[in-house]
Amino acid sequence: MTQSTLTYNGFYSESPRPGILGWLLSTDHKRIGIMYLCCITTMFIVGACLGIAIRLELIAPGPTIMGPQTYNATFTVHGIIMIFMFIIPSVPAAFGNLVLPIQIGARDVSFPKVNLISWYCYVIGAVLALFSIFTGTGAPDTGWTFYVPFSTHTNTNVSLAAFAAFMLGFSSILTGINFVTTIHRLRAKGMTWGRLPMFVWTLYATAWIQVLATPMLGITLVLVILERTFGAGLFDAARGGDPIMFQHLFWIYSHPAVYIMILPGMGVISEVIPVFARKPLFGYWAMAFSSLAIAFAGSLVWAHHMYASGMSDFAILVFSFLTFIVAIPSAIKVFNWVSTLYKGSIELAPPMLYALSFIFNFSIGGLGGLALGAAASDIHLTDTTFVVGHFHYTMFGGLGFAFFAALHYWLPKFTGRMYNHKIAVIAWALLFVGFNVTYMAMQAVGIQGMPRRYYDYLPEFFPLNLVSTIGSWVLAIGLIMMFVNLWQGMRKGPVVGKNPWGAATLEWTVPSPPPMDNFGPDDPVVTRGPYEFKGVVADEY
Amino acid sequence: MSIEHRDDTGARFGMWLFLYTEVILFSGLFILYAVSLAKFPVQFAEASHKLNIYFGTVNTLVLLTSSLTIALAITAIQRNQIKRTLLLSAMTIALALVFLINKYFEWSAEIGHGIYPGSEHLAEMGPGVTTFFNLYYFTAGLHGLHVLIGGTLISIVSIMVAKGKVTAERYTLLENSALYWHLVDLVWIFLFPLYYLIL
Prior knowledge:
The complex is a heterodimer of chains A (about 550) and B (about 200). By secondary structure, chain A is mostly helical. Chain A contains 15 helices and no strands. Chain A has helices spanning about 20-25, 30-55, 70-105, 110-135, 150-155, 160-185, 200-230, 245-275, 285-300, 315-340, 350-375, 375-380, 385-415, 420-450, 460-490. In chain A, helix 3 packs parallel to helix 6, helix 4 (about 110-135) runs antiparallel to helix 6 (about 160-185) and helix 6 (about 160-185) packs antiparallel against helix 7 (about 200-230). The termini of chain A are close together. Chain B has about 200 residues and is mainly α. In chain B, about 80% of the residues lie in helices and about 0% in strands. Chain B is built from 7 helices and no strands. Chain B is elongated, with a radius of gyration of 19 Å. At the A-B interface, helix 6, helix 7 and helix 8 of A face helix 1 and helix 6 of B.
């Protein structure tokens, strides 16, 4: 690794306030994005450690490293951290904040102060969630879904965890409002809707779901807290309530939330693939509208989580049909990525490897989703580890890998330094292999009938569980390697110029790291599309 | 270094988006109301008759008037009549307080009768009645919280008006607070008939 000094510090050194307050009170979207990135990565590491602990417990039948109550708390906290504190905010809040304003040629988001408040809501939510583990009467043990009636009766610290999730939801809403307004109001001259980078389109679709769906989670969680405080019985069948209503209200948010998680990931992939195939994105408008179509159709399918809960057969039929419709825009995206690669001049740089493995993992996860969306096979597979494998394929193999792709793609922009490519490729290979071993084994054992969330299991499930746990170790080694490599690169990697990848979007026309007001005194005027590579030259590093 | 950014249309647009999220927040409770009403039509009517319609009516009048005063405050600040703006805002805040005080007396009376979420007296009255009052307390409580937030918001903006930070040239903050206040009013316009009138 070459030692070199960075002569230009961009927004790191230009701040109206010096020191730590310059960060904590900053309304600059890049600083807020970096703060998000630090918090989110920390939460990811905490969640990953809990995940490895779960896998370790399940390495063999019977108790291994923890008791049943600890196990319940572990998978609950793993779920709450990973869903609410990593997957949902990871790409939109961290990379959205960092990149979106620059990509549309704006100086900042529409409401910089609201942006900062949103970060504080996130931090408060995260701190409360961690508090709920160590204080009160024990860590929450309901699973991240807070299902009634258990969540209203258990003595553990569910209320605090639910309130934490409420705060995180509030943070998500504020980010969504900010992004929709920013994209509508602050596009630079010449930045027409047809020239928006695909990342912006997906963030736009995501932001609408955040605004439209998240309040429903808010009211549902508030009701759980009220039920626990007053013992009211709105969800208690014995007192005239209805537990199924809770599931409906919960999934009206939480299913669209799945698309809050995956859409920005798809945006990252749509940015990375054209750059490293040196070809314009195939089917620009199809890609743009499929993002909106996923957001729209994805909001209509919440009850496919409830086939086994007791719904009318007709309702199951309708929700099954609607669920299959979501596969169409998702497939449009996959086919268009593949068409972009066709006859491209493909460079297998680290971001590209993550992007390609995203397509692979997400396709497996998506096809598994069809098996679960069809009522007949779902009745067999529901609440087995197949479901766990499936959503890890879409969420970790999808969004997780997109997040890593984004880290490898944009970190050089925001740190001004490049990581070691060789180590990055080895880390990617370990991650990819470890990931597939872990979750493919989980899916296989689920098809055999192993239930999810169980502390103990029958001896015949042992071999595949062992394979899965060993896979999780490979995964962990890959993660450590990747993070260490990125950290080393950020600290003392070779200095990069404006445009190390030769990309054509606006963020690559400003210095790395970008200056405080992004573009200097004059706003940029956009004269070309985001994927027109003619005349774009990659800087040497 | 940073160039001042100002976009009144954008600010209003953002506020409308936020108000939409508030509507969705309340809609969860409205869905529960609809489902429960379909399940317990008789019990809901029975429970509804236990509510004191006079409290509800007075509060409806109070809130409608407060929406008028805050709307007049916007017109006043547009015409640069600062004193009148402050007076009208103060009237809105006062009416918000009247609403909350009235709510306090209404709830005290009902709690005095043993009707509150989780009470034994309520449990004896059977499933449908319990559901009605639980929803009534939760919805009205959430609405009351919004009255409190709205009143606080208008108070803060009034101080900014008095200090000259919100003026005839830039009054979006007052306008957005007023929009929020109209939402509080609007939600009540739905709550009042659902709980007091139609059953």
